[in-house]
Design a protein that fits this description.
Order of helices and strands: HEHEHHEHHEHEEHEHEHEHH
CATH topology: TIM Barrel
Shape: globular
Strand order of the largest sheet: 5-4-3-2-1-9-8-7-6
CATH architecture: Alpha-Beta Barrel
Helix content: 40-55%
Largest sheet: 9 strands, parallel
Number of domains: 1
Number of helices: 12
């Protein structure tokens, strides 16, 4: 059992935070990750900045643009994280788009990720069929979990296919729009969460998109194993800096 599956199988709900590598400043990556673990998060998604994102809302797009302007690259990110396991014990996931991974070299990317102690990868634009045909064996060889996304429009048959291909969790996108904080979930979103919960999938689901505070966090986790916060964290980091991380995490955990 690896770090990711061990944490997901433990009692309690998961709080995952998305943090853009190289933001706010180029050399902040490791310090942000350390502060997040110290503040009590369960899982961190390290965002790999990309110039042409598909699903990211304006806040995360802006953080990626800033990180790229700061000089962040895939090679540099691996260099920054080469000793990350000397400092952090929680599961770490790399999240980004497939083009930079392809340019870097897929096997080279997976090998480096495994060497530094990454547990999983999220590549929203890598189709399930392409993954299974061309890359599944590589992911398995390097012990990395590929995490797939579902949306309110994903048919049950497709969800079952994703369930069979998943080894850690399914990323349950709360909405069909781009990422971004919102005040709470609609009745339709809550029905979607309940519908997926009723499928009794063999791997847990973690909700992402639209979670910004304690209320939306508790809504999201009422029918799933956990929730992911991205845009709201990036905004807080921009405003309060690294020193504001503990207070932000406490605000999400309140009344939990």
């Amino acid at each position: 059992m690896n770090r990711l599956t061990e944490r997901l199988s433990a009692e309690g709900k998961i709080l995952s935070i998305y943090a853009t590598a190289g933001f706010p400043q180029l050399k902040d990556t490791l310090q942000v990750l350390k502060e997040l673990e110290n503040a009590g998060v369960d899982l961190i998604e390290i965002g790999m900045p990309f110039s042409d994102p598909l699903a990211d809302g304006p806040t995360i797009q802006e953080s990626s643009t800033k990180a790229l302007m700061n000089g962040m690259t895939t090679e540099l990110l691996f260099d920054q994280l080469k000793e990350v396991r000397n400092h952090l014990s929680i599961p770490l996931i790399l999240m980004g788009y497939f083009n930079p991974v392809l340019q870097f070299g897929v096997e080279k990317f997976l090998k480096k990720a495994a060497e530094i102690g990454i547990d999983g990868v999220i590549l929203p634009d890598l189709p399930l069929e392409v993954y299974e045909r061309e890359y599944k064996d590589l992911f398995e060889a390097y012990g990395l979990s590929m995490i797939f996304l579902i949306t309110p429009q994903t048919p049950e048959s497709r969800i079952r296919q994703i369930e069979q291909a998943s080894t850690s969790f399914i990323y349950m996108v709360s909405t069909s729009s781009t990422t971004g904080a919102q005040e709470g979930f609609s009745e339709g979103s809550m029905e979607y969460f309940k519908r997926i919960e009723a499928m009794n999938l063999k791997v847990p689901t973690v909700v992402g998109f639209g979670i910004s505070n304690a209320s939306s966090y508790h809504q999201a986790t009422s029918h799933s194993k956990g929730a992911i916060i991205g845009s709201a964290f990036i905004k807080a980091l921009s405003k309060e800096g690294i020193e504001g991380i503990p207070a932000f995490i406490r605000s999400i955990r309140s009344s939990s």
